[in-house]
Amino acid sequence: MSAVKSVTRQVFDDVMVPNYNPAQFIPVRGEGTRVWDQEGREYIDFAGGIAVSCLGHCHPAMVHALSEQSKKLWHLSNVLTNEPALRLAQKLVDATFADKVYYANSGAEANEAALKLARRWALDVHGEHKHQIIAFHKGFHGRTFFTVTVGGQPAYSDGFGPKPGGVHHVEFNNLESLAAVMSEQTCAVMIEPLQGEGGVVPGEEAFLKGVRDLCDKHNALLIFDEVQTGFGRTGTLYAYEQTGVTPDILTSAKALGGGFPIGAMLTTAAIADHLKPGTHGSTYGGNPLACAVAEAVMDVVNTPEVLEGVKQREQWFREALNAINEKHHVFSEVRGRGLLLGAALNDKYKGKARDFLNAAAEEGLMILIAGADVLRFTPSLIISDTDIQQGMARLEKAIERVIAAHG
């Protein structure tokens, strides 16, 4: 048996599958919006674990919930239910359009469940002919083979052999594109109300309402993927509340657990009835630890103080990004909603998003990208004005680095 190595970034290259290329520094501790690496260097976190750490790092309510539940019960499986799962489900139902909740471990699993439910509903109610699933170019719904096929980014789904059939893609924010392929064979339309990975592109209100109308016309289910937009990210508990559109199925994950892995699918009682015992399942879904933490997150996030605060913080972010851009002229626009914001690079800097991300890390700032042309910001929903201003100062230095390097 080999001796244990010191834990360095090189160990990743030695022992991990190379499907990721993580940063060279390794974080070891976080508190609020600050993170420290092995060398003790501090970073301001504008990435939030890709829209996951909605209350920042080690929020006291989450730490308390996890600590208390860890002394009681860790795991049962779904042969039995548990109190944290039931309490959380009741709160989700009370706060949304939904009557029923199904738990999973991730956004991909929640979406997998939604797609399987839609297919089973269509088979039971309408027959075998009704199986078409329509989604949107540049959409993202997870990495299982079914969800990555439904996602509209071939770079993620090509190269793994024959894909699940009956899936079609149309243009986002283009109702005519959708209407042209919908028919009585359409089982469901899956959509992000605001595309995240696809470039932080909001769905236009008239478009989303039109999608709902087309689903009603063709007796198809409307699935809202709110894995990234949900749990306060846009200033309401779920983004659908701002659209005037109610979906038939909604999926949630990421911020739902604030950093503890959990996913959920929400739907109506009539649709949920088609997932009878044995039709779908998850060994870990509804885990007591995950549900206890998610309940604590919900108790903090689903309050007027936090949700209204998201809208205030959006303005602080926009003002700071616009001020930087007035000086340095690198963005063509800042788009998004709440604290899911994207700064689209202008023609001069197109394709260089990763350069900005790397430069930001050098300056002690963690950000994200959404494709090669967009800088993405998904910080804690309760980030302070001070942390925003200090983070933006670091971002400006990073931008100056990239400008100097590219002339």
TrEMBL record:
N(2)-acetyl-L-ornithine binds at R143, S282. GO terms for biological process: L-arginine biosynthetic process. Its main location: cytoplasm. Keywords: Amino-acid biosynthesis, Aminotransferase, Arginine biosynthesis, Cytoplasm, Pyridoxal phosphate, Transferase. InterPro entries: Ac/SucOrn_transaminase_bac (IPR017652), AcOrn/SuccOrn_fam (IPR004636), Aminotrans_3 (IPR005814), Aminotrans_3_PPA_site (IPR049704), Class-III_PLP-dep_AT (IPR050103), PyrdxlP-dep_Trfase (IPR015424), PyrdxlP-dep_Trfase_major (IPR015421), PyrdxlP-dep_Trfase_small (IPR015422). Pfam families: Aminotran_3 (PF00202). Its EC number is 2.6.1.11. Pathway: Amino-acid biosynthesis; L-arginine biosynthesis; N(2)-acetyl-L-ornithine from L-glutamate: step 4/4. The keyword Transit peptide does not apply. Binds 1 pyridoxal phosphate per subunit. It is found in: Cytoplasm. Its cofactor is pyridoxal 5'-phosphate. The keyword Cytoplasm applies. It catalyses: N(2)-acetyl-L-ornithine + 2-oxoglutarate = N-acetyl-L-glutamate 5-semialdehyde + L-glutamate. HAMAP family: ArgD_aminotrans_3 (MF_01107). Homodimer. This is Acetylornithine aminotransferase. It comes from Aliidiomarina sanyensis. The lineage of its organism: Bacteria, Pseudomonadati, Pseudomonadota, Gammaproteobacteria, Alteromonadales. The gene is argD.
